[in-house]
Specification:
Structural class: mainly alpha
Mean pLDDT: 75
Shape: globular
Oligomer: single chain
Number of helices: 7
Helix content: 55-70%
Radius of gyration: 22 Å
Strand content: under 5%
Number of strands: 2
Low-confidence stretches: 1-14
Number of domains: 1
Distance between the termini: 65 Å
Strand order of the largest sheet: 1-2
Largest sheet: 2 strands, antiparallel
Order of helices and strands: EEHHHHHHH
Length: about 140
């Protein structure tokens, strides 16, 4: 029985930075980009109504939904990700600013976990600012 070697199919060409099985290092994956563009076009009208939809939720539910959107704000560096971030933030800015009023409505046993998950999305200097702000405002969990 003959063994197939995968290494022979992926021979590195040191001059071009390409392998025989793939795209050039650092180049965009066009399929992913096209999918993101199409998804953005479909979701765009719904993203504009986020503020209204969030207003219909209870404060503790808003925390959970905002956490999901905060994750979207923290990832991606391409044009679609930037447009999506802008739309989400503009639609939800009011709610992100009110998080300190929503958190008291989160069940006690979930508060620390929810806060930790929000903080994990921030750069370290922002985490320090948030913690200092919480201390200054005497916010306790």
């Amino acid at each position: 029985m003959k063994k197939l070697s995968l290494n022979s199919e992926k021979i590195q060409n040191s001059n071009s930075g390409m392998t025989s099985a793939g795209r050039k290092k650092g180049s965009t994956n066009r399929l992913n980009q096209n999918a993101k563009d199409a998804l953005f076009d479909v979701l765009n009208p719904s993203l504009k109504d986020l503020n209204k939809r969030l207003n219909s939720l209870e404060p503790n539910e808003r925390v959970m939904v905002l956490k999901g959107f905060a994750k979207m704000l923290a990832v991606g560096d391409d044009e679609v990700a930037q447009k999506t971030r802008k739309l989400i933030y503009e639609g939800l800015e009011e709610h992100f600013k009110k998080l300190k009023f929503y958190f008291p409505h989160v069940p006690q046993e979930k508060k620390i976990t929810e806060l930790r998950q929000f903080l994990s999305l921030l750069p370290i200097q922002n985490i320090e600012e948030v913690v200092e702000s919480m201390k200054n405002q005497n916010i306790r969990f």
